[in-house]
Amino acid sequence: MPQLSSLGKSKAVRNTAIGIGVAVLVPVAVTVLAPYVRPAARSAVKAGLLAYEKSREAAAELGELMEDLVAEVRDELREEREATLSSVRSDTEPGADKDA
């Protein structure tokens, strides 16, 4: 019997026993837990898809808002440039006739 007790202390034997135990118990656990895990997994995937769709909608709305904002700023800049050019032209036109 002393050999049996020393065999149980061996790391290789212990690791092999753990591996065999896991190999036997995992399929049993999967079979037992599958009816409960599948609905939970479906719910998680469903929630993920809903979150993805909502985030895409929010990103699209944000993109539209940014496009509108950029268009407004461009219009303001164009109007400011036109106002500046018209004031510069009105200031230089009388002087340009005298030089010519």
From TrEMBL:
InterPro entries linked to this entry: DUF5132
Regions annotated as coiled coil: 52-79
Q: Which residues cross the membrane?
A: 12-37
Membrane in keyword set: yes
Could you tell me which residues belong to the region Disordered? 81-100
- State the source organism's domain of life: Bacteria
| Pfam family membership, one | DUF5132
Spans of biased composition, class Basic and acidic residues? Answer: 90-100
**What's the protein here called?**
DUF5132 domain-containing protein
Which species is listed as the source? Thiohalocapsa halophila
